[in-house]
Amino acid sequence: MAEIRPNRVKRKLAAGESAVAIGGLVTADLIEQFGPSDADAVWIEGEHGAIDFLEISDQTRACDMWGKTSIVRVNSHDYGLIYRTLDRGAQGIVAPHVSTKAQAEAIVRAAKFAPVGMRGMYTSRQGIGVPNYHAVANDESLIVVLIEEIQAVENLDEILEVDNIDCFFVAPSDLAQTMGHIGDLNNPKVKSTIEGAIKKIADAGRTPGALANEEQVELYGEYGARFFLTSIDPWVNRGISDFVTKMNRA
Question: Tell me: the pLDDT tens digits for 170-214?
Fold first, then answer.
């Protein structure tokens, strides 16, 4: 009898451990190349990327091959979009611009089967051959909501009351924009707002998430963040630049 595929990130976060997702405009082939890495998950970019539902199927399948959690950032709170993304094999969704308790509750309804929510009844690829899929799927599906507007920070206490959300992810760029500091992530007010939001999430006993590079990850970890997204792009660009520099010296 087949069993539902375990969600690596969800289980690590539930155990009080930290987890990391690698992101960027990845493809299924790139995900396979990253398979041997220690990353826990791949952040599949459905909000700003060009992927369609067929590519979601291929990219999540590549994640499955290596035991990585497939997490798709969708581009809206649309009920059908959320559950269709999960139907295509995603193990988790990231919902953007969650600024009210009502929005957070609606996302849970779309992403979870009854009795928790009202996700449309269908057997995702994650459920093929799993006879009790609809009974156990809620336990392995991951929900991340993005706290990326100053309104969300102002409403954070209420948003944190919503159950069945695995991570409240503080997204810096849009947050800075809504504070009137577009592109200025080093603004003291922006930095203190990010710090305060992460600490509030952790103090409430919920899981904070953060976008981090190598210089920020330890600091955000000290604030309480346990789920991290890091982009592959700086590493690739730095590696190419280092190679070209060494080539020109040869």
Answer: 999 999 999 999 999 999 999 999 999 999 999 999 999 999 988
Which of these is catalytic: 48, 97, 134, 181?
Answer: 48
Residue 48 is a catalytic residue: yes
d(CA 41, CA 90): 11
Spatial contact of 64 and 5, defined as CB atoms under 8 Å apart = yes
DSSP per-residue codes, 17-29: --EEEEESS--HH
Domains and CATH numbers, the chain: 8-249 (3.20.20.60)
Cα R_g (the chain), whole angstroms: 18
SS3 for 146? strand
Query: Contact 3/210 with Cβ under 8 angstroms?
Result: no
Is the omega angle on the peptide bond into residue 115 within 30 degrees of 0, that is, cis? Answer: yes
Both structure tokens of 38: 């220690």
Task: Report the C-alpha gap between 176 and 212 in whole angstroms.
Answer: 15
Cα torsion angle, 30, 21, 106, 100, sign: negative
Is pLDDT of 1 > 80?
A: no
What predicted TM-score, i.e. pTM, was given to this entire model? 0.95
Provide the phi-psi class of 72: left if phi over 0, else alpha when psi is between -120 and 50, else beta: beta
Asked whether 100 and 64 are in contact (CB, 8 A), the reply is no
Q: Name the one residue in this structure whose structure tokens are 């590519």.
A: 55
CA distance to 128, 129, 247, per residue, from 38 (Å):
27, 29, 29
